[in-house]
Amino acid sequence: MEAQAPVSAPVQAAYSYCEAVTGQQARNFAYGIRLLPADKRQAMSALYAFSRRVDDIGDGTLANDAKQTRLEETRALLGRVRDDAVAEDDTDPVAVALADAARRFPIPLDGLDELIDGVLMDVHGESYETWDDLKTYCRCVAGAIGRLSLGVFGTQPGAPGIERAPEYADTLGLALQLTNILRDVREDAGNGRTYLPSDDLAKFGCSTGFDGPVPPPGSDFAGLVHFEVRRARALFAEGYRLLPMLDRRSGACVAAMAGIYRRLLDRIERDPEAVLRGRVSLPGREKAYVAVRGLSGLDTRYVSRQTARRRV
Questions:
Q1: Average pLDDT in the chain
Q2: 228 pLDDT exceeds 90?
Q3: Whose CA is closest to 249, among 32, 30, 35?
Q4: N or C end of the chain, less CB within 10 A?
Q5: What is the spatial distance between Cα 54 and Cα 17, in angstroms, rounded to a whole number?
Q6: Listed residue (148, 141, 118, 142) closest to 45, CA to CA
Q7: pTM of the full predicted structure?
Q8: Which domains does the chain have, with CATH numbers?
Q9: Cβ–Cβ < 8 Å for 269, 261
C-alpha cells in the first residue's frame, strides 16, 4: 500500500476532535481501534464521530419531527462529503475528518445513509415481528458500520473467499447489535422501545415488557435470553470468517471489539436476569486483556483453524 500523504493542520485538528469524541464516548469501540495504525485509527474515529452524531439525534429529547429534520440535515451533510464539497477549513470538524477519510480510503459512504435510515426507524417507533424484520434494522445500524469499517481495513490480496468479506463484516455487525439489544433490554423498555421480535417474546411469555428488575410473571425470560444468545453466537461464528482476510492490525482491531462483545454475551448467558437489574459490562482490565489477545493473533489463528476444518 502506498504511503499516505501527510494531513494539513486543519484536518489534523479535525481528526483530533473525532479521536477525543471516540475516546470519551465509545466504551468498547475505542479498545479495538487503538490497535490500528494512525491513518486507519483516524479514519475509524471520523466514522465513529459521524455515527455518534446520528445516534445522539435519535436518542435525544427533541420532538420526533425535529429529530427527523436534524437527521435529514445530517444526510445533506453526508451528501456534501460524498461530493467532496467540504473544505479543509470548514467549521464542522466531523465533516472535515470524514471527507478526508473518504478521500484516503474506499469507504462505502452509502452505509451512513443506511445508519440514518435505521435511526429514523427508531424515531418512527418501529417494532419487529420476526427476526427477519429485526435483521433489517440491525443491518442499517450495525451491519452498515461493519461494511464501512471494512473500507478502512481493506483485505489481504488473494485471501480465500475474499468476495464474501462485506457479507461477513455485515454479519459481525448483526452479532454485536443483537448483543447490545440483550444488554440494553430494560433501558430500551424504559424509553418505550422493544427490539426483540414479538414472535420470540410471545414464544417465551415475555410480551408484557421488561420495565422492572424481575422478569414478567409466568414468563420464561431465561429461555428467551438463551434463545437469542444462541442466535448471536451463530452470527459471531459466521462473521468471524472475516478475520483471516484482514491484515494483522486490522484483524486485531476486529478481534478485540468482537471479543469484548462475546464476553458480554457469556455474562448475559450465565445470568440472564442481570440485564433487568442494570447494565452488564466488562471491567477495563478485561477489555485490555481482550485487546492484547487480539493483537497477539490468537483469535485470528483460531478462526483460521476452524475455517480449515469446515472445508475438510
A1: 90
A2: yes
A3: 35
A4: C
A5: 17
A6: 148
A7: 0.90
A8: 8-105 (no CATH), 127-312 (1.10.600.10)
A9: no
